[in-house]
Amino acid sequence: MTWQQRIDTALDARRATDTLRSRTVVDGGAGRFLTRDQRRFCNFSSNDYLGLSQHPAIIRAWQQGADVYGVGSGGSGHVSGYTRAHHALEAELADWLGYPRALLFISGFAANQALIAALMDKDDRIVADRLSHASLLEAASLSPAQLRRFAHNDVSQLSALLAKPCAGQQLVITEGVFSMDGDSAPLDELGAAARQHHAWTLVDDAHGIGVLGAEGRGSTAALDARPDLLVVTFGKGFGVSGAAVLCSASVADYLLQCARHLIYSTSMPPAQAVALRAALKVIRSDDGAQRRHTLADRVHRFREVVTRLPYQMTPSQSAIQPLIVGDNRQAMQLAGHLRERGIWTTAIRPPTVPAGTARLRLTLTAAHEPDDIDALLEALHAAGQ
Ligand code: PMP
Asked: Contact at 8 Å (CB) between 259 and 115?
């Protein structure tokens, strides 16, 4: 096959299975409303769970950070791109989450890739929840370690896999709140199983951080023992972007030697670190607590009614409320029906989710008013007829 034939074949295969991905140009997509072609939609697709992307104090912090530092960091943190703003944010994150150290990354995807690439060796084994994010599973399959997946949240299968002989070290990988199902991992049980086999645990809490737990500390806040490695991301509850790895002092020092996404990549703009400090302050404040309370209220309002409609939901209690449709085309049609009624949702299809489980990944946020939830429920009711 020539290059062109290879590209065309791949695209044709996507078209034939209704899995061709595309993007839509919008005028701002993170707030309560999203505008496209001068038409306003209520936005049920963003991960801005607390509505912080539009928070005046955080916007102002970013602007003030740019006044002080300019718009770019000027280099990798190993060269000249590690400012007082980066350093202060790392210290505050470590203190907030109860770890000796935090290291900033430009994205959660980069953090997961860097961490797994830096840690895993040939004789090692990764045991990952089957529904772990693409950034984790891709890094795991590219690493020289053996990769074994356990059925979603199945602690006994995890234990059975960990019990098999392994010449090297074992790493258990899971998420706090699962990105496409919205349910939570049984972190205490998973951690206990890992410790029994002297394995380390990596928890990616992209969807729990800021949103769950006291002071928004996330899915791991109240655990018996904290995970060895915690990844938090800032594109969701924090309303910004970027990520951090929380770990011991020696692991942080090790990552500074071996995490290539840190060493060979421009660090996040210092102004962004200033904005993230402001977002963290909001998350820890009464304002943050109020936003978490509002979000919980919207989730309750939605689930109370949606569970009586003829749709298959997951057991999620989080802001992520997926509506499982199954067929790819039907999922897109349902998204189209809702769009006609002014509701913005996106159909998520394989390979992002397992074949036969195409879904609308509805996300609720603290920026939604009760009327927005009612309008969504009415639109779902009408589409279901
Ligand atoms: N981990 C999980 C569980 C995610 O859902 C995502 C983003 N969808 C990422 C990591 C990647 O984070 P980022 O968007 O910061 O690259």
From this structure: yes
